Amino acid sequence: MNDALLVPIDMVIDETMKTLDHHSHNVAALSDAEVCTVAVVAAHGFGNHQQRALDLRYRLSYLTMRLSPSRFNQRLHARAVWLPPAGGDGRHRRGAGVRSDL
User: I want to staple 42 with a disulfide (CB 3.0 to 4.6 A). Which of 9, 53, 71, 83 is the partner?
Assistant: First the structure.
């Protein structure tokens, strides 16, 4: 992972959230865009290992504060609507077993 990939990911997510008038909580250590960016970086470069993605972004000074894995997961799950479902097929896992012909 390098700046040529990290910066565009960060910019697209941040600008999308701004365009859709999303605002992070004013006391949050990391913005919602930063939380979503870490999740995308984890999925793209670290096999969904979020702690490695957090460590990388902190080490490269993209993040000014470290979040514990549990706190990061709480923030991430609260913003799940901003991320595509796992599997990449465009469908949520919950409804995968429901028959569509009914």
Answer: 53
Amino acid code (one letter) for 25: H
The answer to whether residue 100 scores a pLDDT higher than 50 is: no
The alpha-helical segments, DSSP class H, found in 20-93 are 32-45, 50-59, 69-78
Q: Could you tell me the two tokens for 58?
A: 């902190």
**CA separation for the pair 51, 39 (Å, rounded):** 10
Rounded to whole angstroms, the Cα distance separating 7 from 22 reads 20
H or E segment to which residue 94 belongs: none
Other residues' Cβ atoms within 10 Å of the Cβ of residue 6: 20
- H/E element, 86: none
pLDDT tens digits, 66-97: 888 888 888 888 877 766 665 555 444 444 44
Q: Which residues, at least 6 apart from 59, have a Cβ–Cβ distance to it below 8 Å? A: none
Please state, as a whole number, how many other Cβ atoms lie within 10 Å of the Cβ of residue 63.
19
